[in-house]
Design goal:
This protein is mainly alpha-helical and about 120 residues long. It has one domain. About 85% of the residues lie in helices and about 0% in strands. The chain has helices spanning about 5-45, 55-65, 65-115. Helix 1 (about 5-45) crosses helix 2 (about 55-65) and helix 1 runs antiparallel to helix 3 (about 65-115). The chain starts with 5 loop residues before the first helix and ends with a helix.
Length: about 120
């Protein structure tokens, strides 16, 4: 049987807390970069409103401006980080669940042996 100590559980809970704070940072950066990219794209689109072109052409030009393209890498990095952190948090939560299951099994065994005595 696996024996997990309370100290190990404390460390896991602390790690979940730390990862949660980092997750919040990267998720907010992801949202910020998305908003900034949309803002720059929309500003470029508005600059083209007086030009004689179709809506699709304006959108294509606005989406290919360097200010807009610069955000693609930032958005991808932020999303990669926050998805990775979600998986790390889930892993730590599963560890805590395992600890609770093992603790419940030990308590049940103790109770069983006490009833036999």
């Amino acid at each position: 049987m696996i024996k997990l100590g309370d100290e190990t559980l404390e460390k896991a809970v602390h790690k979940i807390s730390e990862l949660g704070q980092e997750l919040a940072k990267w998720e907010s950066l992801y949202e910020k970069y998305n908003s900034e990219m949309k803002y720059h794209r929309d500003m470029e689109y508005l600059k083209l409103m007086n030009d004689k072109m179709t809506q699709k052409e304006r959108e294509a030009i606005a989406n290919t401006q360097q200010k807009v393209i610069d955000y693609i890498g930032l958005i991808a990095e932020a999303k990669e980080k926050y998805i990775g952190l979600r998986h790390k948090i889930k892993s730590a939560e599963l560890f805590c669940d395992l600890f609770r299951t093992q603790s419940a099994n030990v308590r049940r065994e103790k109770k069983f042996y006490q009833e036999l005595s």
